[in-house]
Amino acid sequence: MSVLRKILAGSIALPLAIGLGAAAHAQAKAAPATKPDADALAALNKMGAALRALTAFTITADVTTEQVLENGQKLQYGGDVRIEAQRPGAFKISTKSERQEREIYYDGKSLTVFAPTIGYYASVPAPSTIGATLDYVSDKYGVEVPLADLFSLGVDPALTAKIQSGFDVGPATVDGKKCEHYAFRQKEADWQVWISSDGPALPCKMVVTTTQDPAQPQYTAVMKWESSAPPQAAYTFNPPANAHRITLADAKTGSAK
């Protein structure tokens, strides 16, 4: 489970242009000290409804992550994530970065993590729904599914109770798309989301800052959405002839790239 999703569950788991008017709006409207702004929560709930309405979808995302060295110096890495999903129980996630390449398959019965560069894979039985599977593989195997927040953020209304503050920063443009920028704070993380102003209220960008770490590393994702996905057969892993099966515990602790 990602840091943000862990926080939303109560356990501790994208180019931008903002005009001067938006910056002034953010300065004039300070974040609430004790509770989130009602409009910000309403926007989050609207986004959740838009996410729930997607029974099949494809996301392509440009992501950046920060690694903090022992001396406090930060290193930034870029990568690409592609998510193809069908609710309630199927997805394929492909990730490629400067450090590793992974494919994750889930067909409603099992989850497989595959490292195509070296040909190693690990499979485990999984629950029948996406949400239950994300929780299961995170808790039991420490598997972190990229952008897992999008399967839960705004979907469960009870999760918004964990938000300590939130406010509307103002209008913004993300990758040429008109959005509204919101900022939220809760235990051990600050996070921002840019929600589309045109069409379905889907997230165009997310930034998560891990405040439990004094260095406060950030994770950023800029997303594009399609309301379609491949058929069910695409989510079942068929190992290549030269692939080697290992246990998930070995895959978790290995240095495969």
Largest sheet: 13 strands, mixed
Count of individual helical segments: 5
Overall tally of domains: 1
Mean pLDDT across all amino acids? 83
What's the CATH topology name?
outer membrane lipoprotein receptor (LolB), chain A
CATH class: Mainly Beta
End-to-end gap = 21 Å
Q: Which outline best applies? A: globular
- CATH homology superfamily: Lipoprotein localisation LolA/LolB/LppX
Q: How do the strands of the widest beta sheet line up side by side?
A: 1-8-9-10-11-12-2-3-4-5-6-7-13
Q: Give the name of the CATH architecture.
A: Clam
Low-confidence stretches: 5-28
DSSP summary, beta strand count: 13
The assigned structural class equals: alpha+beta
One letter per element, helices H and strands E, the order comes to HEHHEEEEEEHEEEEEEH
Proportion of helical residues = 10-25%
Q: Beta-strand level of the residues, as a percent range? A: 35-45%
Rounded to the nearest angstrom, the radius of gyration is 18 Å
What report would you give on this structure?
The two termini are 21 Å apart. The protein has a 13-stranded mixed beta sheet with strand order 1-8-9-10-11-12-2-3-4-5-6-7-13. It has one domain: outer membrane lipoprotein receptor (LolB), chain A. It is globular. The protein contains 5 helices and 13 strands. The protein is α+β, with helices and mostly antiparallel strands and 257 residues long.
